[in-house]
Design a protein that fits this description.
Elements: H1 7-12, H2 16-32, E1 37-41, E2 44-49, E3 52-59, E4 63-67, H3 74-80, E5 90-93, H4 100-122
Antiparallel strand pairs: 1-2, 2-3, 3-4, 4-5
């Protein structure tokens, strides 16, 4: 797949059922990270704050992934255990509904983490 110019172009390259899920995911990211810039980074959609990418998403044949995911954070451990993925990734199967509430909390966590790092850097 050619590197998309923007998130709209990225989403448009998928079948309608996947586009619907990606648009719901995008709206969840936008609400959970107001003010974050939407960019393409490493060829996939990302949200950037304070000059840093905070979270990414990507669609694949059988799942939608978000990166980095806070798998080791106590608040999310129990909920994320049911989803495949590595240390910093979560794979949401395409045949299931996206857990938008959980995803929103993860994005908000990543925003908070980003803001704290920016604050610490200023000190």
């Amino acid at each position: 797949m050619k590197k998309p110019a923007d998130i709209d172009a990225y989403i448009s390259g998928f079948p309608e059922d996947v586009r619907t899920k990606l648009n719901k995911l995008r709206e969840t990211f936008r609400k959970a990270a107001p003010g974050a810039a939407e960019v393409i980074s490493y060829g996939i959609p990302a949200y950037k704050m304070n000059g840093k990418d905070i979270i990414y998403f990507a669609a694949f044949k059988n799942h939608i992934g978000i990166y980095p995911a806070p798998r080791v954070v106590e608040e999310f451990k129990k909920e994320l255990v049911e989803y495949k993925g590595g240390k910093g990734t979560v794979q949401f199967p395409l045949e299931k509904e996206l857990p938008l509430g959980l995803i929103s909390r993860i994005v908000k966590f990543k925003v908070k983490e980003n803001l704290q790092k920016a604050k610490d850097k200023k000190k």
